[in-house]
Amino acid sequence: MAIRKALSSDHRAMAEIAAKAFVDEDLFGRFMYPFRREYPEDYILMWEWKIWTKFNDYAREYLVSTDEESGKVVAWAVWERLGGGAAVRPNPLSQRWFYLF
Fold first, then answer.
1. Per-residue pLDDT at 82
2. pLDDT for the residue numbered 25
3. Banded model confidence at residue 100, pLDDT cuts 50, 70, 90
4. Which helix (H) or strand (E) holds 81?
5. Where does 2-100 sit in CATH, by number?
6. pTM of structure
7. Direct distance between the N- and C-terminal alpha carbons of the chain, in angstroms, rounded to an integer
């Protein structure tokens, strides 16, 4: 499996993976979203919104793993740098800006 930086076009696939991973988890599954099985699209949209709102934060780095044959996103991870060192990290948004347009 290939690993690369996540793109904004990967948000939906990332949200679907997170929704499947946390569907039976107590906090995000049973407690906060008790109707996730009746309204699965709303549950996936919640995850997509969570990813979207934090995607361009310079302290976070999103990576995805893709299937080599189909190119489909099959896993993802996010790392967040905490503390004063996060402020000196270059903003990846400035690097991604040219890829968006």
1. 75
2. 87
3. very low
4. none
5. 3.40.630.30
6. 0.79
7. 28
Model confidence over 26-40: pLDDT tens digits?
887 788 889 999 999
Q: List the structure tokens of 98.
A: 């040219």
Region of residue 83 (left: phi > 0; alpha: psi -120 to 50; beta: else) = left
Phi–psi pair at 41, nearest 5 degrees: -65, -40
State both tokens at 24. Answer: 């039976």
d(CA 73, CA 53): 20
94, two tokens: 């400035």
Q: Give the Cα separation of 33 and 16 in Å (integer).
A: 15
Instruction: Scan for tokens 């189909």, then name that residue.
Output: 70
For the chain, the structural domain boundaries read: 2-100
Calculate Rg over the CA atoms of the chain: 15
